[in-house]
Structures
1.
Amino acid sequence: MQSLNFRREHQLPKKGRKVTKMKISIDPNKSVYENAAEYFEASKKQRKKSEDTERAVKSSEKELQEFESGLKEKKEGKTEEKKKAKLEWFHQFHWLVTSNGLLAVGGRDAKQNEMIVKKYLKENDLFFHADIHGAPAVVLKDGKKASEKSLGEAAHFAGCYSNAWRARLAGVDVYAVGKDQVQTSAPTGEYMAKGSFLITGKKQYFKGVEMVMYMGKRKDTGEVRIVPSSMGNENLSPCYELVPGKKEKEEIAKELSNELGVRADDIAFILPGRCEYKKLR
């Protein structure tokens, strides 16, 4: 078999001519037609291999895209689950974790007040209420085992979210009772408004709870929280002192949202009412 050189020219539009060389082998023992047929069959096999390879590549690309899409959906799903996991049952209420790690929850309206008492007030808990018309039902979980410090913080929390804040009072008295002292229905022949309760027996009073709270971003979790001033503010930075005032919640929230790094709506959601504020650090 001998090799012959052929010259093939390809015309490229607007770019002149390009000359390429291609080496082929011809069997002199075969006719021109036999050599041509052999190369024709070889070219068909090569073309089929190329087509098979192209199909395999496309199939692999599709599988890769589906795999990457699946990973993305899985990742997004986990992110969404993570967001949902952060929402605890008490986030719908006003809530506080005391210095000793106890949870206090307070209703935002009459419906939530009733829900808190009927669903979440248990035997070992304490019920707190400011001694003023228009105050949230506050439940301190495991309150019967709480230290005096946690009791005082829960009472302070209950007082600040009551109408005493809205009335711009300097302070208010708050009392605490056990579950068995809280009646959710009126005596026969009497009427009790939704979200109201009948309290019996002796009350534990916390006198003159002051209307001062701190708001800021927790150093340990980065969460924006509002706490009664009796808890201190060492764990908040930046930190603001809040007192009853004339500024609407939405106005304050808008002013502080950038510095605190959260939406204005999220700040307004946790404020006790109209306020005045000053930055402590």
Note: DSSP finds six helices and 14 strands in the chain.
2.
Amino acid sequence: MAGLALTVGPAAAGGQWLGALLAIAAALIYSVYILVGTGVMRQVSAIQSSAVIFVSAGAMSSLLMMVNGPHLPTTASGWAVIGAMVVVATVVPVVAFLAGLARIGPPMRR
């Protein structure tokens, strides 16, 4: 809660209610995602689930790019950073998370 308070506004009377509500909504949505994902992972592999997630994210990103226009890197180092973000910060963690979810389930499972 302290982190949430610092994120939405450290001033005693300040802060943005919308920011607080969005942060709480994100936590609730992620909790539902984990619980639903546990059931899904009993039927499919982590790779299959990840593929659906990444294709869906790619489709939404493509729609946003069609609306707002592309903002692509212009240098090789920019593309290298994008590639590293895709592999190191997205693909590996999502596959590992889903594989772990299939093995151990959500933390509160009985």
Note: The chain has two domains: 1-43, 45-105.
3.
Amino acid sequence: MRNKKNSLLFKQKYYICKIIYRCMKRIALIFVLLTTLSFQVSVFSQDDKSGKSKVLIEEQNVFEMFVVGNKLTVKNGQIGKQVEIISIIGTKIKEIKIVYPNFEQELNLPRGIYLLRMEETVKKTLIK
């Protein structure tokens, strides 16, 4: 009788601990997500030759550039910056100046693979 009572008490404690563990796990996950979303993102890189570190990404509003169809779209771009369009063999095709942060422009390029370069960011794109 006593063994059964201890066994039942053990099972109750086990299930209570299991429930508490699940709740704490969820709370910890929510806390981690909220803290990572509330702080600014910074990515660092170290130069091999000089050994100095530099910040690659400093703010959360990082610009995006992509091509859909034959139209270049730049989101969160800095006004006055240049987007270079380079062919896959390295020839500069066009240079487009960003006029406003969310910028779109028709490219009128033939089919092929192109590189989009803005400052240190380079993206490869395919125009069909």
Note: The beta strands are 43-46, 53-57, 64-68, 71-75, 82-87, 92-97, 103-106, 112-118, 121-127.
4.
Amino acid sequence: MSFSLVLSQTFERFGLQFINKRLYRKSYLTDQAERLMSPILAQYNELVGQYPTDADHRKAEENQLLFLIMIHWLSLQKGPPLKILDIGGRGGLFAYYCKSYGHDAYISDLEYILDQSPNKELLELLQVNNFALKVEAMKPLDIKGHKFDLITGFRTRFHSTLPFETGKEAEEHWGSDEWDFFLHDLASNVLTEQGKIFLMLNRLQEREKGEFVPEKLKALFRARGGRLRQNFLYFPNTKKIT
């Protein structure tokens, strides 16, 4: 299982669980990922082999370890049962891991993504709860009456205002007003009182300049209680957002 490991020493100050480098050297996390994947690995690999590009195949392989690192950063492997929503969850692997540790996990994505092969078959294999959700600028989320303890999103593109097919250089992205509305909506209408948000941000305006997040957005996130480290954005106390 190949994966370029993300060093986690900085996350102790970030407010997430510190993962000792010795766990990497002892292959602890790799062993745990293999244990969780073993019941479904053959079928999983067969299905992800149906993704159309090499990039899709590589991400599907990397995610087997990446998502387990996320689980440990958030202490989900040992914490109390939570109701979790993974926005843009596609085939449902992160939610599958969360379920394996006793959580009530859901994924959401665009309707055509959920109905697309092999995502549809992966969700059936992993038996992950899912519902269609389109995240739009300045519009409240329709989360079907649910309330969640944790919202996650990994490499999502809901903040892009132009379709991917236009080309990355043509993409435009949410500014401060759109992000502020989104965060307030999550804190007020989607999350429970003690709810948290953890996002692995995808491409934002200034990534090509060596930054994942423009300075104006950094200021907004920090003003709302967010902790930003490279492309990881964590809100441990969303009361500060409202």
Note: The two ends are 41 Å apart (CA to CA).
